[in-house]
Design goal:
It is a single chain. By secondary structure, the chain is an alpha+beta fold. The chain has 2 domains: about 5-330, DD-peptidase/beta-lactamase superfamily (Beta-lactamase), CATH 3.40.710; about 350-430, Lipocalin (Beta Barrel), CATH 2.40.128. Helix content is about 25%, strand content about 25%. It has helices at about 5-20, 60-75, 100-105, 125-130, 150-165, 165-180, 225-235, 245-255, 320-330, 350; strands at about 25-30, 35-40, 55, 195-200, 205, 225, 255-260, 265-270, 275, 280-290, 290-300, 305-310, 355-360, 360-370, 375-380, 385-390, 395-400, 405-410, 420-425, 425-430. A hairpin with a 2-residue loop joins strand 9 (about 275) and strand 10 (about 280-290). This is CubicO group peptidase (Beta-lactamase class C family).
């Protein structure tokens, strides 16, 4: 990285640490499967924090729990549309679905009933479950986004019930160990920052507690380091190391609901927060617990991601700082496009399908991509377009927009020659409204007047 870029990044971090009066702050950027920059300001004890200093990451914990749930889904042990009482028969929230809890659309209360769970020792599942009665339903399920820490306490129990072990043991075995996140723990171990509240009118500190949250731990218990959290940022971007299929992580990043419908700057997927800024969409999560703030975001389109952690209860705008760091590096050292390289082999039959096709009178262009993928787009550049992934003989599955999940099927004539494409009943032919195709079929031909 250029010295000028490194200085610009450090300057942004230094300005925030000093201006927001954070006892310490750490940050990092990732790209191309590795950490490309780290920075630190302030002190932990008598020394600057390092990439191995633990900070509490709060609600970023939720994204780990979501990944555990999606692993269960991919293994066929549950569906996101399943009711909770299919697996937790004792719950009074049995009609809510797993997907609704993941996306915070179940209408469940934001916080667990009783004392503020973030500052008091947590109770077990029996106590939490008993407290989540019908009075804790704040909105009709599916109506709107309503962030629910309590919902992720429920999801943690769901994981434990289906795995036959605690959610933490499942996390260690299924995610942390495979990704090499050995410094991500439920309680601080080794070098770690203490959490503080900073007095609003004086430069003095108040130590904050960090009790075990019990059954609410899946909502915000974890601690992590720059090195470990940077690995998680890469995971969110699709570098999954087999923990989940990249397509599943992409599904988690898809918007399930928006928090600010009029402007759509903040939304939520399946356990991932979504942020739109600078014409880009970022995915990840933020975290806030007494004494700590954290943010981890990545732009999957460029592969550039960032993280920020601070040991202060409030005052540091971690999302804007993270976005600024990403923007600085992408402005000063943008990702170069991959070099174009011609294909080494070609499927002649697929190559013969490329070129113009027509949906009614509207021209489309079919292009052949790598690995037998196809790209179908309006020739004029406006309208519905999609890439299609092979799905057996003469069939492809749509990946984008209107045609996502739909099947593009090549229909052959009696002689075996390609006749037309059928895309969710839309017929694409080599000539506009081919009279030999099923729709419209048997037309009288084109006319010169409207009679």
């Amino acid at each position: 990285m250029l010295e000028a870029t490194e200085f610009a990044l450090l300057r942004r971090l230094a300005q925030e640490q000093a201006g927001s009066r954070a006892p310490s702050m750490v940050a990092a950027l990732v790209r191309g499967g590795q950490i490309i920059w780290t920075g630190a300001r302030g002190r932990v004890g008598d020394s600057p924090p390092t990439t191995d200093t633990q900070y509490r990451i709060g609600s970023i914990t939720k994204s780990f729990v979501a990944a555990l749930v999606l692993r269960l889904r991919d293994e066929g042990k549950l569906e996101l549309t399943d009711r909770l009482d299919s697996y937790l028969p004792e719950t009074q929230l049995g009609d809510l679905t797993i997907g609704q809890l993941l996306a915070h659309t179940g209408g469940l209360t934001a916080e667990s009933p009783g004392q503020w769970w973030e500052r008091t020792p947590g109770a077990d599942w029996t106590v939490l479950n008993a407290s989540l009665d019908d009075d804790q339903r704040k909105h009709r399920p599916g109506r709107r986004f309503h962030y629910s820490n309590a919902g992720f306490g429920v999801l943690g129990e769901l994981v434990a019930r289906l795995r036959g072990m605690s959610w933490l043991d499942a996390l260690r075995e299924e995610i942390l160990a495979p990704l090499g996140q050995h410094r991500t723990t439920p309680h601080p171990e080794g070098p770690h920052a203490a959490g503080f509240a900073v007095h609003p009118y004086a430069d003095v500190l108040l130590p904050e507690p960090s009790p075990d949250a019990g059954a609410m731990a899946p909502a915000g218990q974890l601690w992590s380091t720059v090195t470990d959290l940077a690995r998680w940022v890469r995971f969110v971007g699709g570098d999954t190391a087999g923990v989940l299929h990249p397509d599943t992580v992409a599904e988690m990043r898809e918007p399930a609901i928006v928090d600010d419908g009029d402007v759509w700057q903040v939304g939520y997927g399946l356990g991932f927060q979504l942020v739109r800024a600078h014409g880009r969409r970022f995915a990840g999560h933020t975290g806030s617990m007494p004494g700590f703030l954290a943010c981890a975001l990545i732009d999957p389109a460029t592969g550039t991601g960032g993280l920020v952690m601070a040991n202060t209860t409030s005052g540091v705008p971690v999302v804007p700082v993270t976005l600024d760091l990403i923007q600085i590096v992408d402005d000063l050292e943008p990702v170069l496009p991959a070099e174009w390289i011609p294909a080494t082999a070609v499927n002649e039959e697929l190559l013969a399908l490329t070129g113009p096709w027509y949906w009614g009178p509207s021209p489309f262009t079919l292009r052949l991509l790598g690995d037998g993928w196809l790209d179908l787009a309006p020739t004029t550049g406006s309208g519905r377009a999609s890439r299609f992934r092979p799905d057996g003989t003469d069939a492809w599955i749509g990946l984008d927009g209107y045609y996502a999940g739909e099947t593009l099927r090549l229909v052959r004539g009696a002689d075996g020659a390609p006749s037309h494409f059928d895309l969710a009943t839309f017929i694409f032919t080599r000539t506009p409204y081919d009279p030999n195709a099923p729709i419209p079929g048997g037309t009288e031909g084109w006319r010169g007047t409207a009679r």
